[in-house]
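As noted in the main text, all predictions were made from sequence alone. Below is one such record, for HTH lysR-type domain-containing protein.
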Amino acid sequence: MEIRYLRYFVTVAECRHFTRAAEKLGIAQPPLSQQIKKLEQEVGVPLFERLSRGVALTPAGQVLYDDAVKILAQLDHAVQRVKQVARGERNQLRLGFASSTVVSQAVLELVRRLQQAHPDIDFQPIELPMPALVETLREQDVDLAFLRLPCYASEHVAHTPLFPDPFKLVVPANHVFAKQQSVTLSQLGDDPIILFPRDIGPGLHDALVDALKGAGLAPSNASLAPQLHSATAMVSAGFGIALVPESLTTQLSDHVAVVAVEDMPLVSHVVLAWQRTNTAQVVRRCIHTAREQVTQMGS
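Prediction:
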């Protein structure tokens, strides 16, 4: 299938009229109609419904349109990057952060090392909730992303593990647990537990709720923090206690204390993820460097 066929098809779909599309493309209308007919013959189904005053996409045409727009955008992006290299300009890499990873000191240290190892790359940070971030990866609107597992949507992308991040209990500094080295989940029943909204991380939320229910706790009455990393601030303000990944407890105020949970069955994992079909050299270089640096950071 020729790329120009897709461009012609997308233009007709957006103009909803062959004559207007031909004018926009700078070609005559009859050749455009012939090219669309050839495309329909090639895919084996009608793509447009011919109307008295224009055309409309068929269901099959709508499917092709959605994919064609993405293909053409990726092609234009690739051409632009080739021209940048030819002009000696810096490479760009769109680096995504799940909201619960952006304050992790380990993640930030790895990003610093990536920038030091690749001074020719212009890293562009993007912060999103995990489901939205995975979707941008799948659409290749983001090149690499730091995710926190478990995450249902992560099944659709490739990823490499960075580090485990066990959950810790955060309590007010004057709480009875504040001076204890550890507690069990069953001891938490008397305090309101602060959770994060399910829609910002369904997989992690469900796993945490299951862990609480397994200990006989009722998280349905929990307070909600705007984000996972906001839960510690709500503890400091006196809203309750919170279970958060350890990496979110490294720079807390004196108004809270961090306590280990002996029987916590849930361990989150921070990973670096990418779209499986993304073969860009700049992406592969950063994945390789991230793996090397994580090994050094852990030694």
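The mean pLDDT is 89. DSSP finds nine helices and twelve strands in the chain. These features were considered when defining construct boundaries for the mutagenesis experiments described in Section 2.9.
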